Amino acid sequence: MNVYTNNIVTAAVAFPFIAFAITVPYMIYQYRKFGSIPWLRTIIVYSFVFYLMCAYFLVILPLPDDRSAVVAYAATPQLFPFNFVREFLAQTTFNAGDPSTWLATLRDPYVYEAIFNVLLLTPLGMCLRYYFRRTWWQTLLIGFSVTLFFELSQLTGLWGVYAHPYRLFDVDDLMLNTLGAMVGFWIVGPALRLLPDIRLVNEEAREAGMRASATKRGLSFFIDVFVAQTLSSIVIGGFGTAGLESVARSQGISWGLVSMSVDFLFYLLCFVIVPVITKGQTPGQMILKLRIVRPDASPARWYQYLARYGFLYALVLAPLLALNGIVSLDPSRMPEMGMLASVIADHRAALVVCWIALMCAWALSLIVRAIRSAVKKRPFVMLNGILSATRVMTDEAVGVERDRKNPLDVDEVSALESLIEEGGTPLSELMERAGIAVADEVRAWVPDPAPVVVLAGSGNNGGDGWVCARALAEAGYKTTLVTPDIAERMKAEPARSTALAVFSSASENDLPLSVLVAPDADVLADALDDAMAIVDAILGTGFSGTELREPYAGWIRAANRRRFEGSRGKGRGFHRKRRFERADHDRARRSLPRKVKDAPFAVAVDVPSGLSAQTGALARPTFVADATVTMLAYKPGLVKPQATRYTGTIELARLVDTAPYTARLREACGDR
Ligand SMILES: NC(=O)C1=CN([C@@H]2O[C@H](COP(=O)(O)OP(=O)(O)OC[C@H]3O[C@@H](n4cnc5c(N)ncnc54)[C@H](O)[C@@H]3O)[C@@H](O)[C@H]2O)[C@H](O)CC1
Ligand SMILES: [K+]
């Protein structure tokens, strides 16, 4: 086994170099995707790379010294499947009835190499399922391809580096390695319940990406100082080379003052002039996608940038100037000094100690506040931010905050739809895009095709649901669409024609889409039990009143119950029935038991059904969603505090570039 450990040591030695080479592009990719660099993901990815390197090194090392040597045992590929079994049986002393032969068997090279060959790709299979969320057949295919790559490296003498193969191409290795990948895939199945859900890791990363953490801000500040200082050094260096230093001295101008002024100008450029031009971003903030705004996320004014960084400049510079003042006082000239100066000169050492203590306390308070803001997920506010009435937010958070701050009333949304239609985009096209946006959200959470239930009402919200169902079925999801009535009898347009088109497209193309028309409670519950995702396209902006009529109320109860009480497992019927009768399930999320582990992902179209898009009033029951995909603009009801636990995270699907239409709408409203 020694050769194996040696190879792993080689991998460990080579890993830092490879890790270093992938770090920068990997970090940039992560940051661009999530706006943050999640540590769990980083650990997984780095250990995965390390593992693949170990595996490959085990396959190709040790390298022979002679590049043209013929290695006898590797010369002819081994093409008989199960050769290792034959060889083992021919050579073994194994006797099932004699335990003393068992250990020897394990030490038999044919046995331990077979076990090792299975183990080699087991982590790959685990990772493919857990991290990359691949299905069994994808794992099989990838596992086989990786193995083939390994074996071909051996067959071709490391792709032609060696004149002859120096390790054996063996069909048994191909089979055993691929089997190993599948073993990894299977054993990770039960472990999935214990491991943190990688999709939640992504979600957390995205959430972290929304926050302007102290790290991001520190880094962007560092970049800015670096840029300003580099530019300034180049210019001052240039002045020096041009002989300006001696000119200045001959004129009696302090060169130190000149360099300080040049520094100051470049700091002014980076921290004030550039933000004025870019509407709130210093160079470092442009790279890290941060932005200086007012606390309500509206754009800041030029004097606020000046105040923000002016105070910071003073806060950093003043202590340095003070220190310089203390140190440069000469005690021997005390008699000529004023009272204060002589006291300072007399206690210089003590004052420097005080200064250091003060600076340490300041740095410590910054660190403590940075950690606290990271733990409590709150913004990190500094004194200069308060004084200038500005905050640093991520670009993403600024966008969301501005959208949230400008919701459109329900009748404004209708007016917007009409404007968009006049602008040349028909409502049926909007519906198509809306349905696809919801399907994309489902696919982001449930990446592998799985059973999905779409609850569709008979209005246009239901129309979005029909499109979503078709898009999911086209992607291979086994989709069940639940509707109160057949497509012909849908009440609204374009929902009716859309539903009819989806229906005929599903049968023409043989899509895995089944339609349940007004199913009874048991049939619906069966469909929900199987579902990995539930789409609520029952009611959108057209919902009125305070109560939900049947059958919608029953559908929502069934969906919420599936989420919070699990599927109708054996022995749970009685318990659940009682709960159902007491109507406990339509209590707010806080008072419900924790979402059950196998709960399907629940996504609401436009608004959760039962929540009034205009007022935020809640009906009993109201659909409880993990995410809401809202169309065109936020609605006032979605941003009400009581709405959050029903909406989950809100995604805005703009469907078109709404900015020109919204501007016209606001103009029209202003005119009124
Ligand atoms: N208009 C468009 O072109 C687009 C709309 N989109 C989506 O459409 C909905 C709004 O659609 P609308 O047809 O106006 O209303 P709803 O589908 O939300 O609901 C109407 C439907 O509901 C019934 N109803 C009303 N109140 C109740 C109640 N208390 N109990 C039971 N049933 C009720 C009513 O009778 C009607 O039948 C919008 O949210 C978007 O999702 C697009 O996305 C794009 C194009
Ligand atoms: K809905």
From TrEMBL:
Sites where the protein binds (6S)-NADPHX: N460, N461, G462, G463, D464, Y552, D606
Entry binding sites for K(+): N461, D536, S609
Keyword presence, Transmembrane: yes
SUPFAM superfamilies reported in the protein's UniProt record: YjeF N-terminal domain-like (SSF64153)
EC number(s) given by UniProt: 5.1.99.6
Cofactor detail note: Binds 1 potassium ion per subunit.
Membrane topology recorded in Swiss-Prot or TrEMBL: Multi-pass membrane protein
Keywords: Isomerase, Membrane, Metal-binding, NAD, NADP, Nucleotide-binding, Potassium, Transmembrane, Transmembrane helix
Essential cofactor(s): K(+)
InterPro entries reported in the protein's UniProt record: RDD, Teicoplanin_resist-assoc, VanZ-like, YjeF_N_dom, YjeF_N_dom_sf
Domain of life from the UniProt record: Bacteria
Catalytic activities: (6R)-NADHX = (6S)-NADHX; (6R)-NADPHX = (6S)-NADPHX
Residue intervals of the YjeF N-terminal domain: 413-663
Parts of the chain that traverse the membrane: 12-31, 43-63, 110-132, 139-162, 174-196, 217-240, 252-277, 311-329, 349-368
Pfam families: RDD, VanZ, YjeF_N
Compartment list: Membrane
Its job: Catalyzes the epimerization of the S- and R-forms of NAD(P)HX, a damaged form of NAD(P)H that is a result of enzymatic or heat-dependent hydration. This is a prerequisite for the S-specific NAD(P)H-hydrate dehydratase to allow the repair of both epimers of NAD(P)HX.
Family per record: Belongs to the NnrE/AIBP family.
HAMAP family in the cross-refs: NADHX_epimerase
Name of the protein in its database record: NAD(P)H-hydrate epimerase
Source organism of the structure: Raoultibacter massiliensis
Gene that produces this protein: nnrE
